[in-house]
Fold:
Amino acid sequence: MPRAHEISPTAGALVIVVLTFGAMVLVTAIAGVLKEPGKPARVLVGLGVCRTGSAVWAHQTGDGIYSSPWVEGGVVYFGSNDSYIYALDALTGEEIWSALTGGFVHSSPVVIGGRVYVGSMDGRVYALDSATGKVKWSFQTGGPISSSSPAVSENKLYVGSLDGAVYALDALTGENLWRFPTAYAVFSSPVVAGGRVYVGSGDGCIYCLTENGNLVWSFSTAGPIFSSPTVKEGRVYCGSMDGYLYCLDSNTGEEIWSSPAGGPVASAPRVHGGRVYIGSNDRRIHCFDAETGEEVWSFQTDGEVVSTPAVTDGRVYFGSRDNSVYCLDADDGELVWRFRTGGPVHSSPRVEGGKVYVGSTDGRMYCLNAGPQELILRSRGPETIENAFRVEDGALEWVNLEVMVNRTPIRSVNGILLNGKPVKGCVDFREGDVLEVLPSEELEEGDYVMVVYAPADQLLGLWAIRPVGKTQLGR
Structure:
């Protein structure tokens, strides 16, 4: 494998040159863009250059994040050990709302029908309004709710509690419909498939229940189950702290195969393209053949892997207790990139729109760029730049706004998004807008980026591209 190298984890320009208007005239004259200045624009802009695997933004909470994010309608929802549930703008990372619970929030939210459902270590299940964070209802279980995340199906909510029970609630009202007791605490998240509820327990068993709470079958392993089951094509896949990954018949609970995973397994499996991907406390992520259980490959990290992998577009994303988020080639397990956070990563990544959202115990929720290098321009207003640029047949032409690298206008022939959506024709640039551009030529260390308001030959910003080194590229 070629030697890996370090690149910036943050949005490109680390030092903004702040200029008086006189200095702006001097700099624009040197840059060769000064003509007969018109009326200056009252506009502040922010710029970032994000390479593959680097951070688009990071939002700091008051404590470590174990919860995994849910992304819905341009909003990122998650919980934190500061006892809050958060909703952030997926484009900018800015907080929309936060709601206080009575305990740590390790549980991961589910968003359905305009409501956010999540558990808390205060023992309650919460239903919040997804737009405002206002509590619609809460239900008190008999113990804390740790990593068990709700499953919602046909207006019923299922969740496990450390009191050893699995609960079914009315998702609209919070009414308790039934309670199924196991022999130990339930850390596992239920999954609903084919009218059945599948869940693991600390008593070492995988349970299959009817939607009315009656036992269909149970399967015993040799260790506690912190993993959550995945059901695919009539099979149930689940890890156990006995160090094995199990594949069971979803109708009967009979074992089809079991394979050693190198160490205790708290990660949940992901089944994609005929393969099963799962983390292990042996510091590896493993890939198995879904049909036979034969190991295809494994990848060594520097810490235990309790994060559940996300698999999409030929890539596997997961976190490790070595403080890192990894991206691997799903076919052969080769490293594509590695991003280092400030703490162990228990959170499971969510991939949406070319971005990877994941939390860290350093207290930050990260948005990472999963795609090619992109330039991100944000307008902080207060004025609108009319006819800022034009997009025709996917090609970008700067009009009243100009973005240049080393005095040459940046070009792009695809991947132009305004506020997360494709645009065409002549476009205004308003306060709060976020423009994402995939440059035709990649920007490198030492390059300078200028943003100019063309009608006034007014320099709005000047940035230098400098790496600070938290992202490692493979191959």
Notes: The CA atoms of residues 38 and 162 lie 67 Å apart. The radius of gyration is 25 Å. Residues 5-52+373-473 form one domain. The chain has one helix and 47 strands.
